[in-house]
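User: Quick sanity check before I run a bigger batch. Here is a single chain. Can you write out its predicted 3D structure?
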Amino acid sequence: MHTQIDTIINTCYATTNTSRQIAFYSHLIPVIFSLALAILVFVKSKRILLSKIFLAFVSMFSLWLIGDLILWTQNNYFLQYASWAPLDYIEIVFYVLGLYFAISFVKGSTIPKLSKIFLFILTLPPLFITLSKQSVNGFNYPVCEAFNNNFLGNYKLAVEGFILIILLIYIVIPFIKKLSPEKKKADLIVLGSMFLFLSIFGVTEYFASITGNYEMNLYSLFVIPIFLFAMIYSVFDLDIFNFKILGTHYLVVGFLVLTGMQVFFIKGGVDGLLTGITVLFAAGLSVILFRNLKKESDQRILIEHLADQRESFIHFLSHEVKGILGKNKNMFAMILEKDPNTTAEQIDSFIKRSSVDTNGAIDMVENILRSNDFKNGKVSMDMKPFDMKASVLDALNSLKFDIETKGLTVKTTIDEKQDYTVLGDKENITKHVIRNLIDNAIRYTPKGDITIFLSKNGNKVLFSVKDTGVGITPEDMSKLFTEGGRGKDSIKVNVHSTGYGLFFAKGMVEAHNGRVWAESEGAGKGTTFLLELPAYSA
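Assistant: Done. Predicted structure follows.
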Protein backbone atom coordinates (compact mmCIF):
# COMPACT_ATOMS: atom_id res chain seq x y z
CA MET A 1 0.00 0.00 0.00
CA HIS A 2 2.80 2.38 0.92
CA THR A 3 4.61 1.56 -2.29
CA GLN A 4 1.55 2.46 -4.34
CA ILE A 5 1.06 5.80 -2.53
CA ASP A 6 4.75 6.65 -2.87
CA THR A 7 4.61 5.97 -6.59
CA ILE A 8 1.57 8.19 -7.10
CA ILE A 9 2.47 11.03 -4.72
CA ASN A 10 6.13 11.80 -4.22
CA THR A 11 6.20 13.64 -0.90
CA CYS A 12 9.86 14.71 -1.41
CA TYR A 13 8.92 16.69 -4.48
CA ALA A 14 5.55 17.89 -3.20
CA THR A 15 6.84 19.24 0.13
CA THR A 16 9.58 21.36 -1.52
CA ASN A 17 7.43 23.03 -4.16
CA THR A 18 7.63 26.50 -2.58
CA SER A 19 11.35 26.25 -1.70
CA ARG A 20 12.76 24.70 -4.86
CA GLN A 21 13.63 27.93 -6.65
CA ILE A 22 15.31 29.35 -3.55
CA ALA A 23 17.26 26.08 -3.24
CA PHE A 24 18.66 26.44 -6.75
CA TYR A 25 19.66 30.02 -6.07
CA SER A 26 21.19 29.41 -2.62
CA HIS A 27 23.12 26.31 -3.71
CA LEU A 28 24.23 26.68 -7.33
CA ILE A 29 25.54 30.25 -7.12
CA PRO A 30 27.89 29.48 -4.18
CA VAL A 31 29.11 26.32 -5.94
CA ILE A 32 29.95 28.17 -9.17
CA PHE A 33 31.43 31.22 -7.43
CA SER A 34 33.51 29.36 -4.85
CA LEU A 35 34.86 26.74 -7.27
CA ALA A 36 35.76 29.44 -9.81
CA LEU A 37 37.62 31.37 -7.11
CA ALA A 38 39.40 28.29 -5.74
CA ILE A 39 40.49 27.07 -9.19
CA LEU A 40 41.67 30.56 -10.15
CA VAL A 41 43.70 30.79 -6.93
CA PHE A 42 45.11 27.27 -7.43
CA VAL A 43 46.27 28.00 -10.99
CA LYS A 44 47.53 31.55 -10.49
CA SER A 45 49.39 30.85 -7.23
CA LYS A 46 51.36 28.05 -8.93
CA ARG A 47 49.79 25.38 -6.74
CA ILE A 48 51.24 26.48 -3.40
CA LEU A 49 50.13 24.49 -0.34
CA LEU A 50 47.64 27.10 0.90
CA SER A 51 45.86 27.17 -2.47
CA LYS A 52 45.65 23.35 -2.48
CA ILE A 53 44.02 23.33 0.96
CA PHE A 54 41.61 26.09 -0.08
CA LEU A 55 40.65 24.16 -3.23
CA ALA A 56 40.08 20.99 -1.18
CA PHE A 57 37.93 22.89 1.34
CA VAL A 58 35.82 24.53 -1.38
CA SER A 59 35.48 21.24 -3.29
CA MET A 60 34.14 19.38 -0.24
CA PHE A 61 31.75 22.21 0.63
CA SER A 62 30.53 22.31 -2.99
CA LEU A 63 29.98 18.55 -2.84
CA TRP A 64 27.82 19.05 0.26
CA LEU A 65 25.83 21.80 -1.49
CA ILE A 66 25.20 19.59 -4.52
CA GLY A 67 24.09 16.71 -2.28
CA ASP A 68 21.78 19.01 -0.31
CA LEU A 69 20.40 20.50 -3.53
CA ILE A 70 19.40 17.00 -4.65
CA LEU A 71 17.35 16.65 -1.45
CA TRP A 72 15.43 19.82 -2.27
CA THR A 73 14.89 19.37 -5.99
CA GLN A 74 14.77 15.69 -7.00
CA ASN A 75 11.76 13.36 -6.90
CA ASN A 76 13.56 10.01 -6.72
CA TYR A 77 13.46 8.40 -3.25
CA PHE A 78 16.55 6.29 -3.91
CA LEU A 79 18.54 9.33 -5.04
CA GLN A 80 17.28 11.23 -1.98
CA TYR A 81 18.41 8.46 0.36
CA ALA A 82 21.81 8.07 -1.36
CA SER A 83 22.45 11.82 -1.18
CA TRP A 84 21.35 12.12 2.46
CA ALA A 85 23.61 9.31 3.71
CA PRO A 86 27.11 10.87 3.21
CA LEU A 87 26.22 14.50 4.05
CA ASP A 88 27.31 14.34 7.72
CA TYR A 89 30.68 12.86 6.77
CA ILE A 90 31.22 15.47 4.02
CA GLU A 91 30.29 18.24 6.46
CA ILE A 92 32.86 17.07 9.02
CA VAL A 93 35.56 16.87 6.34
CA PHE A 94 35.03 20.43 5.10
CA TYR A 95 35.03 21.71 8.69
CA VAL A 96 38.39 19.96 9.25
CA LEU A 97 39.77 21.37 6.00
CA GLY A 98 38.56 24.83 7.00
CA LEU A 99 40.54 24.59 10.24
CA TYR A 100 43.59 23.25 8.34
CA PHE A 101 43.39 26.21 5.94
CA ALA A 102 42.99 28.77 8.75
CA ILE A 103 45.96 27.50 10.80
CA SER A 104 48.20 27.15 7.73
CA PHE A 105 47.32 30.70 6.70
CA VAL A 106 48.17 32.12 10.13
CA LYS A 107 51.45 30.20 10.40
CA GLY A 108 52.44 30.86 6.80
CA SER A 109 53.39 27.18 6.41
CA THR A 110 51.95 23.72 6.81
CA ILE A 111 50.93 22.45 10.23
CA PRO A 112 53.01 19.84 12.14
CA LYS A 113 52.74 16.21 11.09
CA LEU A 114 51.09 15.14 14.37
CA SER A 115 48.42 17.83 13.89
CA LYS A 116 47.71 16.52 10.40
CA ILE A 117 47.35 12.99 11.77
CA PHE A 118 44.98 14.24 14.50
CA LEU A 119 42.78 16.08 11.97
CA PHE A 120 42.72 13.01 9.75
CA ILE A 121 41.71 10.78 12.68
CA LEU A 122 38.75 13.11 13.37
CA THR A 123 37.31 12.17 9.97
CA LEU A 124 37.66 8.40 10.39
CA PRO A 125 34.65 7.55 12.62
CA PRO A 126 32.11 9.23 10.30
CA LEU A 127 33.85 7.62 7.33
CA PHE A 128 33.51 4.11 8.80
CA ILE A 129 29.90 4.78 9.81
CA THR A 130 29.04 6.02 6.31
CA LEU A 131 30.81 3.17 4.51
CA SER A 132 29.07 0.63 6.74
CA LYS A 133 25.71 2.14 5.70
CA GLN A 134 24.84 3.22 9.25
CA SER A 135 24.82 7.01 8.72
CA VAL A 136 21.01 6.89 8.30
CA ASN A 137 18.82 4.28 9.97
CA GLY A 138 15.77 4.52 7.74
CA PHE A 139 13.58 6.82 5.67
CA ASN A 140 10.24 8.41 6.62
CA TYR A 141 8.45 8.42 3.27
CA PRO A 142 5.35 10.47 4.21
CA VAL A 143 7.44 13.51 5.20
CA CYS A 144 10.51 12.71 3.07
CA GLU A 145 13.07 12.68 5.90
CA ALA A 146 15.81 10.24 6.81
CA PHE A 147 16.41 8.96 10.35
CA ASN A 148 19.93 10.15 11.18
CA ASN A 149 22.41 8.13 13.21
CA ASN A 150 22.32 9.70 16.71
CA PHE A 151 25.96 8.94 17.50
CA LEU A 152 27.09 10.47 14.21
CA GLY A 153 24.97 13.55 14.83
CA ASN A 154 26.44 14.07 18.31
CA TYR A 155 29.96 13.37 17.04
CA LYS A 156 29.52 15.92 14.26
CA LEU A 157 28.29 18.49 16.79
CA ALA A 158 31.32 17.85 19.03
CA VAL A 159 33.86 18.10 16.20
CA GLU A 160 32.34 21.27 14.79
CA GLY A 161 32.21 22.85 18.25
CA PHE A 162 35.86 21.95 18.85
CA ILE A 163 36.88 23.46 15.49
CA LEU A 164 34.96 26.68 16.15
CA ILE A 165 36.68 27.06 19.55
CA ILE A 166 40.12 26.65 17.92
CA LEU A 167 39.20 29.23 15.27
CA LEU A 168 38.04 31.63 17.96
CA ILE A 169 41.37 31.24 19.77
CA TYR A 170 43.26 32.04 16.56
CA ILE A 171 41.06 35.10 16.03
CA VAL A 172 42.15 36.44 19.42
CA ILE A 173 45.86 35.76 18.80
CA PRO A 174 46.44 38.82 16.52
CA PHE A 175 45.35 41.08 19.40
CA ILE A 176 47.90 39.46 21.73
CA LYS A 177 50.89 39.19 19.41
CA LYS A 178 52.76 42.23 18.13
CA LEU A 179 51.95 41.65 14.48
CA SER A 180 52.10 44.21 11.70
CA PRO A 181 48.82 46.05 10.94
CA GLU A 182 48.66 44.34 7.52
CA LYS A 183 49.07 40.87 9.05
CA LYS A 184 46.50 41.60 11.77
CA LYS A 185 44.04 42.82 9.15
CA ALA A 186 44.53 39.76 6.93
CA ASP A 187 44.25 37.32 9.87
CA LEU A 188 41.08 38.91 11.20
CA ILE A 189 39.36 39.05 7.81
CA VAL A 190 40.21 35.48 6.78
CA LEU A 191 39.68 33.87 10.20
CA GLY A 192 36.68 36.01 11.09
CA SER A 193 34.84 35.23 7.86
CA MET A 194 35.66 31.53 8.20
CA PHE A 195 34.36 31.51 11.80
CA LEU A 196 31.19 33.42 10.88
CA PHE A 197 30.46 31.12 7.96
CA LEU A 198 31.08 27.83 9.81
CA SER A 199 29.33 28.92 13.02
CA ILE A 200 26.12 30.12 11.32
CA PHE A 201 26.12 27.08 9.03
CA GLY A 202 26.62 24.68 11.95
CA VAL A 203 24.13 26.31 14.32
CA THR A 204 21.30 26.51 11.77
CA GLU A 205 22.02 23.01 10.53
CA TYR A 206 21.80 21.73 14.12
CA PHE A 207 18.50 23.50 14.89
CA ALA A 208 17.07 22.38 11.56
CA SER A 209 17.82 18.75 12.41
CA ILE A 210 16.22 18.86 15.89
CA THR A 211 13.16 20.90 14.87
CA GLY A 212 12.59 19.37 11.44
CA ASN A 213 12.36 22.86 9.94
CA TYR A 214 14.96 22.34 7.23
CA GLU A 215 13.93 25.52 5.40
CA MET A 216 16.13 27.51 7.80
CA ASN A 217 19.10 25.77 6.17
CA LEU A 218 18.25 27.44 2.89
CA TYR A 219 18.32 30.92 4.37
CA SER A 220 21.48 30.24 6.40
CA LEU A 221 23.29 29.60 3.12
CA PHE A 222 22.86 33.28 2.27
CA VAL A 223 25.74 33.94 4.69
CA ILE A 224 28.03 32.35 2.10
CA PRO A 225 28.28 35.57 0.02
CA ILE A 226 29.74 37.30 3.09
CA PHE A 227 32.43 34.61 3.33
CA LEU A 228 33.07 34.74 -0.42
CA PHE A 229 33.27 38.53 -0.38
CA ALA A 230 35.83 38.35 2.44
CA MET A 231 37.87 35.76 0.54
CA ILE A 232 37.70 37.75 -2.70
CA TYR A 233 38.94 40.82 -0.83
CA SER A 234 41.70 38.75 0.80
CA VAL A 235 42.75 37.23 -2.53
CA PHE A 236 42.74 40.36 -4.68
CA ASP A 237 43.39 43.22 -2.24
CA LEU A 238 45.41 41.57 0.53
CA ASP A 239 47.05 39.13 -1.94
CA ILE A 240 47.18 36.30 0.61
CA PHE A 241 48.12 33.78 -2.10
CA ASN A 242 50.90 35.96 -3.55
CA PHE A 243 49.74 36.34 -7.14
CA LYS A 244 48.90 39.42 -9.14
CA ILE A 245 45.60 39.62 -11.01
CA LEU A 246 42.83 42.14 -11.21
CA GLY A 247 39.83 41.20 -9.10
CA THR A 248 37.56 42.84 -11.66
CA HIS A 249 37.87 39.70 -13.79
CA TYR A 250 36.24 37.66 -11.07
CA LEU A 251 33.52 40.25 -10.52
CA VAL A 252 32.63 40.17 -14.22
CA VAL A 253 32.21 36.40 -14.01
CA GLY A 254 30.06 36.90 -10.92
CA PHE A 255 27.84 39.37 -12.75
CA LEU A 256 27.40 36.92 -15.62
CA VAL A 257 26.59 34.02 -13.26
CA LEU A 258 24.02 36.07 -11.35
CA THR A 259 22.37 37.05 -14.61
CA GLY A 260 22.36 33.47 -15.86
CA MET A 261 20.80 32.16 -12.65
CA GLN A 262 17.58 33.94 -13.57
CA VAL A 263 16.73 30.93 -15.76
CA PHE A 264 15.55 29.16 -12.59
CA PHE A 265 12.85 31.81 -12.13
CA ILE A 266 11.36 31.65 -15.61
CA LYS A 267 7.60 31.16 -15.48
CA GLY A 268 6.57 31.73 -19.08
CA GLY A 269 7.63 32.16 -22.68
CA VAL A 270 8.07 35.94 -22.45
CA ASP A 271 10.17 35.53 -19.29
CA GLY A 272 12.34 33.01 -21.09
CA LEU A 273 12.84 35.25 -24.12
CA LEU A 274 13.71 38.31 -22.05
CA THR A 275 16.06 36.34 -19.82
CA GLY A 276 17.80 34.81 -22.85
CA ILE A 277 18.31 38.23 -24.45
CA THR A 278 19.62 39.62 -21.15
CA VAL A 279 22.09 36.76 -20.71
CA LEU A 280 23.39 37.09 -24.28
CA PHE A 281 23.73 40.85 -23.93
CA ALA A 282 25.57 40.44 -20.62
CA ALA A 283 27.88 37.83 -22.16
CA GLY A 284 28.72 40.18 -25.05
CA LEU A 285 29.51 43.04 -22.69
CA SER A 286 31.62 40.70 -20.56
CA VAL A 287 33.74 39.64 -23.55
CA ILE A 288 34.45 43.28 -24.41
CA LEU A 289 35.21 44.11 -20.79
CA PHE A 290 37.47 41.09 -20.42
CA ARG A 291 39.56 42.16 -23.39
CA ASN A 292 40.08 45.63 -21.95
CA LEU A 293 40.76 44.23 -18.50
CA LYS A 294 43.32 41.79 -19.90
CA LYS A 295 45.29 44.65 -21.42
CA GLU A 296 45.17 46.53 -18.12
CA SER A 297 46.07 43.40 -16.15
CA ASP A 298 49.00 42.51 -18.41
CA GLN A 299 50.31 46.06 -18.22
CA ARG A 300 50.03 46.12 -14.44
CA ILE A 301 51.76 42.75 -14.08
CA LEU A 302 54.54 43.89 -16.42
CA ILE A 303 55.06 47.12 -14.49
CA GLU A 304 55.15 45.27 -11.17
CA HIS A 305 57.55 42.69 -12.61
CA LEU A 306 59.89 45.39 -13.93
CA ALA A 307 59.74 47.25 -10.63
CA ASP A 308 60.58 44.10 -8.69
CA GLN A 309 63.32 43.23 -11.16
CA ARG A 310 64.77 46.75 -10.96
CA GLU A 311 64.74 46.74 -7.16
CA SER A 312 66.38 43.31 -7.04
CA PHE A 313 68.94 44.33 -9.64
CA ILE A 314 69.89 47.58 -7.84
CA HIS A 315 70.30 45.67 -4.57
CA PHE A 316 72.43 43.02 -6.28
CA LEU A 317 74.60 45.54 -8.12
CA SER A 318 75.19 47.74 -5.07
CA HIS A 319 76.05 44.68 -2.99
CA GLU A 320 78.52 43.34 -5.56
CA VAL A 321 80.28 46.65 -6.29
CA LYS A 322 80.41 47.57 -2.61
CA GLY A 323 81.93 44.19 -1.77
CA ILE A 324 84.63 44.44 -4.43
CA LEU A 325 85.53 48.02 -3.52
CA GLY A 326 85.65 47.06 0.16
CA LYS A 327 88.06 44.20 -0.49
CA ASN A 328 90.29 46.39 -2.65
CA LYS A 329 90.31 49.08 0.03
CA ASN A 330 91.47 46.60 2.64
CA MET A 331 94.16 45.14 0.36
CA PHE A 332 95.66 48.51 -0.52
CA ALA A 333 95.48 49.62 3.11
CA MET A 334 97.65 46.65 4.06
CA ILE A 335 100.15 47.53 1.34
CA LEU A 336 100.30 51.21 2.32
CA GLU A 337 100.86 50.35 5.98
CA LYS A 338 104.05 48.57 4.90
CA ASP A 339 103.64 45.78 7.40
CA PRO A 340 107.08 44.12 7.71
CA ASN A 341 105.35 40.74 7.94
CA THR A 342 103.88 41.20 4.46
CA THR A 343 106.12 39.61 1.79
CA ALA A 344 106.57 40.74 -1.80
CA GLU A 345 104.80 37.56 -2.95
CA GLN A 346 101.78 38.39 -0.82
CA ILE A 347 101.68 41.94 -2.16
CA ASP A 348 101.90 40.60 -5.71
CA SER A 349 99.06 38.16 -4.94
CA PHE A 350 96.95 41.00 -3.46
CA ILE A 351 97.43 43.12 -6.57
CA LYS A 352 96.58 40.26 -8.94
CA ARG A 353 93.48 39.36 -6.95
CA SER A 354 92.40 43.00 -6.87
CA SER A 355 92.93 43.26 -10.61
CA VAL A 356 90.78 40.18 -11.25
CA ASP A 357 88.00 41.43 -8.95
CA THR A 358 88.05 44.92 -10.46
CA ASN A 359 87.96 43.59 -14.02
CA GLY A 360 85.07 41.34 -13.01
CA ALA A 361 83.15 44.30 -11.60
CA ILE A 362 83.81 46.34 -14.74
CA ASP A 363 82.64 43.46 -16.95
CA MET A 364 79.52 43.04 -14.80
CA VAL A 365 78.52 46.71 -15.02
CA GLU A 366 79.38 46.88 -18.72
CA ASN A 367 77.28 43.78 -19.46
CA ILE A 368 74.25 45.30 -17.77
CA LEU A 369 74.64 48.72 -19.38
CA ARG A 370 75.37 47.19 -22.77
CA SER A 371 72.29 44.94 -22.56
CA ASN A 372 70.12 47.91 -21.68
CA ASP A 373 71.50 49.93 -24.61
CA PHE A 374 70.99 47.02 -26.99
CA LYS A 375 67.39 46.55 -25.82
CA ASN A 376 66.74 50.24 -26.46
CA GLY A 377 68.38 50.15 -29.90
CA LYS A 378 71.37 52.28 -28.89
CA VAL A 379 74.12 49.84 -29.91
CA SER A 380 75.65 50.57 -33.31
CA MET A 381 77.46 47.90 -35.30
CA ASP A 382 80.33 48.25 -37.74
CA MET A 383 79.61 45.47 -40.23
CA LYS A 384 82.78 44.38 -42.04
CA PRO A 385 84.30 41.06 -43.10
CA PHE A 386 86.66 39.63 -40.44
CA ASP A 387 88.43 36.38 -39.67
CA MET A 388 86.60 34.49 -36.95
CA LYS A 389 89.64 32.27 -36.33
CA ALA A 390 91.66 35.32 -35.30
CA SER A 391 88.80 36.43 -33.04
CA VAL A 392 88.72 33.06 -31.27
CA LEU A 393 92.50 33.12 -30.67
CA ASP A 394 92.37 36.77 -29.46
CA ALA A 395 89.55 36.00 -27.04
CA LEU A 396 91.36 32.91 -25.77
CA ASN A 397 94.61 34.85 -25.27
CA SER A 398 92.80 37.60 -23.28
CA LEU A 399 91.64 34.95 -20.81
CA LYS A 400 95.02 33.22 -20.47
CA PHE A 401 95.59 34.56 -16.94
CA ASP A 402 92.20 33.27 -15.71
CA ILE A 403 92.85 29.85 -17.26
CA GLU A 404 96.29 29.54 -15.65
CA THR A 405 94.99 30.76 -12.27
CA LYS A 406 92.44 27.92 -12.16
CA GLY A 407 94.90 25.37 -13.55
CA LEU A 408 92.67 24.38 -16.45
CA THR A 409 93.81 22.65 -19.63
CA VAL A 410 92.68 24.15 -22.94
CA LYS A 411 92.55 22.18 -26.18
CA THR A 412 91.84 23.74 -29.55
CA THR A 413 90.56 21.94 -32.64
CA ILE A 414 90.63 24.21 -35.70
CA ASP A 415 90.77 23.08 -39.32
CA GLU A 416 93.52 25.33 -40.67
CA LYS A 417 92.51 24.75 -44.29
CA GLN A 418 89.14 26.48 -43.98
CA ASP A 419 88.30 30.14 -44.48
CA TYR A 420 86.48 31.50 -41.41
CA THR A 421 85.58 34.91 -42.72
CA VAL A 422 82.21 36.28 -41.55
CA LEU A 423 80.46 39.59 -42.02
CA GLY A 424 79.81 41.44 -38.79
CA ASP A 425 80.95 43.69 -35.99
CA LYS A 426 84.34 42.24 -35.06
CA GLU A 427 84.65 43.91 -31.64
CA ASN A 428 81.21 42.89 -30.42
CA ILE A 429 81.47 39.31 -31.71
CA THR A 430 85.02 38.85 -30.40
CA LYS A 431 84.78 40.58 -27.04
CA HIS A 432 81.15 40.14 -26.05
CA VAL A 433 80.17 36.84 -27.67
CA ILE A 434 83.16 34.51 -28.19
CA ARG A 435 85.07 35.79 -25.15
CA ASN A 436 81.88 35.61 -23.07
CA LEU A 437 81.26 31.97 -24.00
CA ILE A 438 84.86 30.97 -23.18
CA ASP A 439 84.76 32.99 -19.96
CA ASN A 440 81.58 31.12 -18.91
CA ALA A 441 83.33 27.80 -19.47
CA ILE A 442 86.23 28.93 -17.26
CA ARG A 443 84.01 30.22 -14.46
CA TYR A 444 81.90 27.08 -14.26
CA THR A 445 84.75 24.53 -14.54
CA PRO A 446 86.39 24.12 -11.12
CA LYS A 447 88.90 21.65 -12.58
CA GLY A 448 89.43 19.71 -15.77
CA ASP A 449 89.70 20.91 -19.34
CA ILE A 450 88.08 23.12 -21.96
CA THR A 451 87.96 22.27 -25.65
CA ILE A 452 87.60 24.92 -28.36
CA PHE A 453 86.21 23.86 -31.76
CA LEU A 454 86.04 25.92 -34.93
CA SER A 455 84.77 24.45 -38.18
CA LYS A 456 82.97 25.32 -41.36
CA ASN A 457 79.98 23.45 -42.72
CA GLY A 458 78.82 24.74 -46.09
CA ASN A 459 77.88 28.38 -45.67
CA LYS A 460 77.98 28.27 -41.86
CA VAL A 461 80.87 28.90 -39.48
CA LEU A 462 80.48 26.95 -36.22
CA PHE A 463 82.31 27.77 -33.00
CA SER A 464 81.88 25.81 -29.78
CA VAL A 465 83.45 25.64 -26.35
CA LYS A 466 83.06 22.44 -24.37
CA ASP A 467 83.89 22.15 -20.67
CA THR A 468 83.97 19.45 -18.01
CA GLY A 469 82.38 21.72 -15.42
CA VAL A 470 79.25 21.79 -13.29
CA GLY A 471 76.81 21.32 -16.16
CA ILE A 472 73.35 22.83 -16.42
CA THR A 473 70.08 21.47 -15.04
CA PRO A 474 66.94 21.63 -17.25
CA GLU A 475 65.52 24.30 -14.91
CA ASP A 476 68.61 26.53 -15.26
CA MET A 477 68.79 25.84 -19.00
CA SER A 478 65.41 27.53 -19.46
CA LYS A 479 66.83 30.73 -17.92
CA LEU A 480 69.94 30.94 -20.10
CA PHE A 481 70.17 33.84 -22.55
CA THR A 482 67.28 35.64 -20.83
CA GLU A 483 67.53 39.12 -19.35
CA GLY A 484 68.95 38.75 -15.85
CA GLY A 485 68.49 35.00 -16.13
CA ARG A 486 70.47 33.36 -13.35
CA GLY A 487 69.92 29.74 -12.41
CA LYS A 488 69.96 28.46 -8.83
CA ASP A 489 72.90 26.13 -9.41
CA SER A 490 74.89 28.69 -11.42
CA ILE A 491 74.68 31.24 -8.59
CA LYS A 492 76.16 28.69 -6.18
CA VAL A 493 79.27 28.41 -8.37
CA ASN A 494 79.51 32.05 -9.50
CA VAL A 495 77.91 34.48 -7.04
CA HIS A 496 78.80 37.39 -9.33
CA SER A 497 76.67 36.05 -12.19
CA THR A 498 74.12 38.52 -13.60
CA GLY A 499 72.85 36.71 -16.69
CA TYR A 500 73.17 39.89 -18.78
CA GLY A 501 76.31 38.77 -20.61
CA LEU A 502 74.59 35.85 -22.32
CA PHE A 503 71.47 37.95 -22.89
CA PHE A 504 73.51 40.53 -24.80
CA ALA A 505 75.42 37.79 -26.66
CA LYS A 506 72.18 36.20 -27.89
CA GLY A 507 70.82 39.55 -29.09
CA MET A 508 74.06 40.38 -30.88
CA VAL A 509 74.26 36.98 -32.60
CA GLU A 510 70.65 37.17 -33.75
CA ALA A 511 71.36 40.64 -35.16
CA HIS A 512 74.02 38.91 -37.30
CA ASN A 513 71.45 36.34 -38.53
CA GLY A 514 73.15 33.65 -36.48
CA ARG A 515 72.23 31.60 -33.45
CA VAL A 516 73.79 30.70 -30.12
CA TRP A 517 72.70 27.95 -27.73
CA ALA A 518 73.91 25.59 -25.01
CA GLU A 519 73.80 21.83 -24.53
CA SER A 520 74.25 19.85 -21.33
CA GLU A 521 73.30 16.39 -20.10
CA GLY A 522 72.65 17.77 -16.62
CA ALA A 523 74.31 18.74 -13.37
CA GLY A 524 77.96 17.65 -13.11
CA LYS A 525 78.17 16.57 -16.77
CA GLY A 526 79.72 19.65 -18.36
CA THR A 527 78.32 22.10 -20.89
CA THR A 528 78.85 22.95 -24.54
CA PHE A 529 78.12 26.47 -25.83
CA LEU A 530 77.71 26.73 -29.59
CA LEU A 531 77.75 29.74 -31.93
CA GLU A 532 76.78 29.63 -35.59
CA LEU A 533 77.23 32.55 -38.02
CA PRO A 534 76.77 32.82 -41.79
CA ALA A 535 80.06 32.53 -43.70
CA TYR A 536 81.08 35.54 -45.80
CA SER A 537 81.47 35.21 -49.54
CA ALA A 538 82.78 38.16 -51.55
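The CA atoms of residues 158 and 258 lie 36 Å apart.

User: Great, the batch can go ahead then.
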